[in-house]
Amino acid sequence: MHPDSFAGQAAAAACDLHEPLRGGFTSTRFVLVEPSHPGNVGAAARALKTMGFSRLVLVAPRVPQVHCDPEAVAMASGADDVLAAAHIVPTLADALAGVQWSLALTARTREYGPPPSAPRPAVQDACRQVAHGGDIALVFGNERTGLSNDDVERCSALAHIPANPAYSSLNLAQAVQVLAYELRLAYLGEGLPGAALPVAGRAGGAIGADGVLQQGAGSPLATSDDIERMYVHLENALIALDFLDPANPKKLMSRLRRLFARSGLEREEVNIVRGIAKHILMLKAKGGESR
Known about the structure:
The protein is α/β, with parallel strands linked by helices.
């Protein structure tokens, strides 16, 4: 082979290595809820960039302008662009606006909420959700207290890193690195060109090695905010039926959240549930007027 031809191939290969990643890499948000230490935020930004991700969302960080904090900038170590572009919001609900599926990372067992899984099967689920074309989010809690039960219940799925039980304490940025690495392997099909993941339980649709949908998928999944509005509507209907006592709810809504989280609600399914709730409330209101 002529040396110039070899050089040309090498240059093309180098160009491919630096080609911007698409698909799941750009539709995945990494959400840090109430991070305490600026250094951890900077290190998390670095962890994301090394794995090809760039969307960092911070929920009520202890240092309001943490993306400008000198310690955060120092720990970002070259990922200053990811840190500077971090989106800061007041609540997890704001962070999940428009998200169709979210994964909460937790270090402890929860009585309620989605059943936990290890990171690898959890990110395979993430790939299937990305195949539907919307955003997904990975949610990490505060360094000291983790995620609240309310935060966990707001997410679609739950993951736990099976660390050494004798010393399972992971730094926030380390946990982000583990999930970002697993997600990168899943999106790239573990380096196999053309590898595709099936969309479980859906007609048609597969996600390719670049994280892009290859075939037509089923009905669009509902977003996080759509589902939250459904829960409010459903809760009001159950209260109107006297099925739910707001003074003694007995974790009913938590159990319903867990039930619906397992199903992967489509937008049309959310509309059906809200339609049922609407008619219950309308009928109860008519009954009250007749009395």
